[in-house]
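User: Batch of two.

Assistant: Item 1 of 2:
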Amino acid sequence: MDIHRPRRFAVRALAHPTALADTLRIDLSKASLGVPLRVGAASGSVLVVGGLLGEFSLAGFAALGALVSAFCRADPYRVRFGRLLVLGVGLIVSLVCGAVLGALSANTWTEIAVLSVLGGIAALLIGALHITGPGAVVFVFGATGSAGFAGDFGDVGRVAVATGIGVVCGVVASLSPWVVDGVRRGFGVVRSWCSSRRTLRDARSFVASPSGIKEVGAEGAVSGGEEVGAEGDGPVYESVWACLSRRPHSDHVHTAARSVVAAGISGAVAVGVGLSHPLWASMGAVAAMQGVRYHRTVQRGIARLVGNVVGGVIAAVLLALPLGHWGAIAAIIVLQIIAEICAPWNYAITSTVVTPMALLMTALSVGLDPSIAVDRVLDTMLGVVIGIVIALLTVTRPDIDGILESTGVRHPRAGSGS
């Protein structure tokens, strides 16, 4: 393959066997159950409480806020806390922006423009903080939902409160093992303190005795003491402020700019061809652009296409069933847990599960019929394809290096060592 013509090389990489193989590969070594259960518990708790209060629509926004628990799953807890707070604030701002658009009855073009920029900002934020997880598409999805829900500025406030409650639940769920361990350690410290007081009291009684005085004189100290060594230095992590205050890395800026352009063009084309939900096309583009490198965009795009087609069929079946609000909530919780279990394994399977979950969550707020699944598939396919095209047209040398690495092709600049 001729890498001296980057775009032609990138086009050929689309048909390389590794592109499809990477999409279908399942990596069970990353399987876990703790994080999925915590994410499911966070989302499920706010959905159930919201349902019991009769606020099914707002419960969906609270569940979106609780999705912060799906981010930073590989980070140490002390590092995760600050990042989750920033993400939570970002989610609230995103949903409020969407709700304001709805309250102002903004036209479709304004919504596309604002949400495209919002997707780019979210991508830049996630990149700057080195955050793993669902990505910027969650911000755009939430803003899209709140734009369709809000009819006045009272709804804007309700969306903000519901999302904030969900964020708090999500942060608590994500950090729950750390909190529980801290409480356990706290009880241990109290027990040690009580025990040490008893030991000290016994030691004083012993020293005051004639035999104790003789032993202290011989040894110079009461036996039983133990010197505690200094803690070893642990790994150093950058603070949230350090990450956000420095100049953004060019790769992150490039990815954010790609996302804005791809989302905007996708929404505009969707309007031009008469699709019913152009913002879903923008979401599809943002989802495809979550890979920093071109080959990741291709892999994500193929996986998203496969997942949306299969997931659309599942969604149509679920929407056709008389689930009711509580049945939809139960299905959302189950699908959420399955999606989080599959997320480290394979993105295509995850997308297959996320598609019906997202549509059911939307149905809680505005109500949907089975035909909406077809619209979802078409809009998302359009967005993903345009996202890949934009990535192709803006391919860079690091993108080419990423393709070479993923395909196993030897770089022509690598000479034989002598």
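Item 2 of 2:
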Amino acid sequence: MEEQNLDRFIKITEAAEILGFAHYRSVNQMIERGALTGYRLPHVIRRRVLLSEVFALKEKAENMRLCGTVVSRGRGRPRKYE
């Protein structure tokens, strides 16, 4: 994608599709954890995220998988993205 197209706001549901989540709530949880930054735009009720941040998070997770970096986890199901 072009550089200027990456610096635009997308809906939470679009971010969920890009990251491979089945539901938008997973993206909301990432915003609450601080993994993504949620933005409130004027005259828009729902939060948005930057497309460039979503792609950066996805790329970081893919690089960690390729390098074999192990992240210590607690109990429960592992997360797709930290």
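The mean pLDDT is 85.
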